[in-house]
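Can't paste images in this forum, so I'm doing it all in text. The chain is below; anyone willing to post the predicted structure tokens underneath?
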Amino acid sequence: MSSEKHNTTKQTQQPDWKFEFEKHWKAFCRKSADYFLSHKDQFSASNIVGIAGGASLLIWLSSGVYIIDEGNRGVVSRFGAYNETTQPGPHWHIPAPIEKVAIVNVEQQRFIEVGYRDTGRGSKSALIPQESLMLTTDENIINVRLAVQYQINNARDYLFNVKNNEAVLKQLTESVERAVVGGNNMDYVLTEGRSDIVAEIKRDIQAAMDDYKAGIIIASVNLQDAQPPEEVQSAFEDAIRAREDKQRLINEAEAYSNEIIPKARGAASRLLLEAEAYEAEKVAKAKGETERFDQLLVEYEKAPAITRKRLFLEAREKLFSSTNKIIVDAGQSAPQLYMPLQNTASHLTAESKAPEAQITTEPAATEKNNSPKAAISNLRPSRSKP
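Text version of the structure:
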């Protein structure tokens, strides 16, 4: 009685959800046992092995499905040997261990650094002396930092022809860089030869990688920095400034020369043209005078007296046309009258602008002096014998 009472108390203490779970589990086990007993012939060992083997085979075959993303290539190898290269999209291969697929990104830009290491974004790069120190042909030591950007252009060659492609590329870059820098002097490497050196390094690296059939194409080679060691940096900067000053003065002199020489040439050309024009003018004028004289000679031979008189009058007219005086010829017995009209006109103008006080104080004298007859009488010269 006491044991039954203890069991009843224990059952009442169990949670409701646990009791319900046990109830459903017992019902499921009972139904499963009934189904197994009624279909006992279907659960033989051979059937179980066949079903398990088929499921395993299906899982194994489905493991050969793979998808290649855009920009990647799939390299399929069968028992370690190259089989094919697949393009982007879904594919299937014989699952491992028969075939394996290596996915290679052929559009990614990869970098290697020689002579330095980029320690982080926005921070100063760390210098690697054993890689950056190089000897030039004039026996000077310089620090060279180089960055190489490359891409994979053949996934098969990249995976099967060269082992550890990045390490090989880095060692090859350092070797080529030392050979190129060692073939030039320090000034050429640090100044005007930087672009030529970079182009030569890129060409030599690409030629070597093509010989190795590494499946790598060199996109660019950047000379990050090239400078002498820190011990001689200040002296070298002074030399660079002096060289820049020299080049600046040369450029200024060339600019001045380019400005002055064209002006001098233009002035010389202008003088030559003016001389030629003056020569042509004088020659044409002389020819015209000669022709005029010849024509005049013909007329003179026809009528000498008339021509002589006309020439005398033309010469006299030409002579007197430039004078500022008027000469009056009153005959052979009367004297000639010279009248400076400009002086007379200016004198009359000055008198007309005189103050009224002078006019009122001496009206008779002013009127007498300003009269045309008085002015003419004052300017008339003394009589002289003809």
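Residues 1-13, 355-386 have pLDDT under 50 and may be disordered. The CA atoms of residues 335 and 382 lie 9 Å apart.
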